[in-house]
Design a protein that fits this description.
There is one protein chain. This protein has 292 residues and is of the alpha/beta class. The chain contains nine helices and 13 strands. Strand 8 and strand 9 form a beta hairpin. Helix 1 packs across helix 2.
Length: 292
């Protein structure tokens, strides 16, 4: 089983020194991946419900700012050698697909093929409104935007015609190092999210699951995979337990479910404390993960 880490990548904590130090420490400790979230703007007041807390609120202070995931991951990739870097998750329907395709291919190019593309449809309607992007049909928009990106990543002359986007013949280079493109991990816990992962994804990125809730969702995912003539062997499953403390015993339970990777959220306010926390997690969990 692989272990990933999800450090705090928001200002004012995530300074250049913090990112450099923490990314190197995670790489040196043998973590498989490092993940970054995405929100381009946040709000003091919003009606949308964050799906991963009981009160529906995202625990971010008024002066905090989530760093752009592609830029911060490029920064981290530049000072590491082995660790993979991933978006957890990129809000694809909010973004122009041509620019996103370029960001993905550039990061994959500069990291030497170490990028994992975590994809979501978003939960914060107010953010869509700020970007003047329609909230309705955002799932359908996501699926079509991924088709646009795949053309840009794989075709010498890319084009697309659809209800949400039209692209006349164009060239985009460099192509990603990974072929045909970086792995696509669809996030989300709903049945439609699992259906997207099963039909067009290279994997599912589940968030906030303990072994019991992961097992229930994986049973649903398996059904959708069968509908698409696929099996669990055709995809990777990544789970971030979020607020559930991960122990060696829990890793064994996750592994018994066939989960490929566990991403641990770890927080600290200084680089030194974050390095210490990273080393503690590696000492506690890595021997079990390597055995599984």
């Amino acid at each position: 089983m692989k272990l990933g880490i999800f450090p705090p990548l928001s200002s004012p904590i995530a300074t250049p020194d913090f990112i450099t130090t923490v990314a190197k420490a995670a790489d040196d400790c043998g973590f498989y991946s490092l993940w970054a979230p995405e929100h381009v703007v946040l709000f003091d007041q919003y009606a949308s419900k964050y799906p991963y807390t009981d009160d529906g609120r995202l625990a971010v202070g008024p002066n905090a700012g989530v760093l752009d995931p592609f830029q911060v991951l490029t920064f981290a990739a530049a000072v590491t050698k082995n660790i993979r870097v991933g978006t957890g998750i990129a809000l694809v329907p909010q973004r122009n697909p041509v620019y996103t395709a370029k960001a993905v291919s550039t990061l994959d190019w500069l990291s030497g093929g170490r990028f994992d593309f975590g994809i979501g449809i978003g939960w914060l309607r107010e953010e869509f409104d700020a970007l003047q992007v329609p909230w309705p049909k955002r799932a359908d928009r996501t699926v079509e935007y991924m088709e646009v990106m795949k053309h840009l990543w794989t075709d010498d002359l890319a084009s697309h015609e659809g209800p949400f986007y039209t692209l006349k013949e164009a060239r985009q280079n460099p192509k990603p190092v990974q072929t045909p493109h970086p792995p696509l991990y669809f996030g989300g816990e709903s049945d439609p999210a699992l259906r997207r992962a099963a039909s067009i994804g290279n994997g599912w990125y589940g968030f906030g699951h303990d072994p019991a809730s992961a097992a229930e969702r994986l049973n649903v995912l398996d059904g959708f995979l069968r509908e698409n003539d696929r099996t669990r062997e055709d995809i990777r499953v990544i789970i971030c337990p979020y607020r559930h403390k991960t122990t060696p015993q829990m890793l064994e339970q996750y592994a018994a479910l066939g989960i490929d990777e566990i991403v641990i959220i770890a927080g600290a306010r200084t680089a030194e404390d974050m390095v210490r926390r990273t080393e503690e997690l590696a000492a506690e969990l890595m021997p079990t993960a390597e055995r599984l």
